[in-house]
Design brief:
Low-confidence stretches: 196-212
Number of helices: 1
Order of helices and strands: EEEHEEEEEEEEEEEEE
Distance between the termini: 19 Å
Strand content: over 45%
Shape: elongated
Length: about 210
């Protein structure tokens, strides 16, 4: 599970902190040595045990041995809807190649080395689903399809395009995040949640970062 953990205030004599779950009776930390700054800014843990409903934050500072239990508010589960991310080379010119990384986990890649309207689609589902009503400009037949675990999606998300190959041209295209209705194994009636125009500086390690 990926969960955002954030504190509204932290005492000056508190921390660093270890994080525990009620799943194992608060006996084994799933995160250690988390700083006060991380908690105040909002710390995203990808190690939260499945089924966690309460997280215990315990200070390691000998001058402050207090702890606090916080209830976990999970993102709503919508069994009849699926999140879909699409990257489309709308300009049909040669672009760079990228890995697509969501909250630190690679969920797909996109090969834009051909001068064509092509790209990739990343579907938040662990079971095969077919897009029947695409909302992106590129032909579906030109889109590579990936599936990823929807549990990677949290309240605060970081989506990165990590450059894996410089193809010597300007990077320009569209990134869409949409919600599709699930009808059997088909995805229909997309509702756009967010969209970006990608325009990245070309270099071997160029990277775009979005926080939808």
């Amino acid at each position: 599970m990926a969960i955002l953990i954030q504190a509204s205030n932290v005492g000056s004599d508190a921390g660093p902190f270890n994080l525990f779950s009620q799943v194992n009776g608060f006996t084994e930390a799933f995160e250690t040595d988390i700083t006060s700054t991380q908690l105040l800014l909002g710390f995203v843990s990808y190690n939260v045990p499945a089924g966690t409903t309460v997280i215990r934050i315990i200070s390691n500072n000998p001058q402050c041995g207090n702890f606090e239990d916080i209830d976990v508010n999970l993102p709503p589960v919508c069994p009849n809807q699926t999140i879909v991310l699409s990257i489309c080379n709308t300009s049909a010119t040669i672009q760079d190649n990228f890995d697509i990384v969501l909250n630190g986990v690679t969920i797909g890649s996109v090969d834009l080395s051909a001068a064509s309207q092509s790209g990739s689609v990343m579907i938040a589902s662990t079971t095969p689903q077919i897009i029947t009503q695409p909302d992106f400009a590129c032909p579906l037949s030109n889109m590579q399809v990936f599936f990823f675990d929807p549990d990677l999606i949290s309240y605060r998300n970081t989506l990165e395009m990590v450059n894996t190959q410089n193809n010597g041209n300007g990077n320009f295209g569209n990134l869409f995040i949409s919600n599709y209705d699930v009808v059997g194994n088909q995805l229909e009636l997309p509702c756009e949640l967010s969209s970006f125009i990608t325009n990245l500086i070309i270099n071997k390690n160029s990277q775009g970062r979005y926080s939808p």
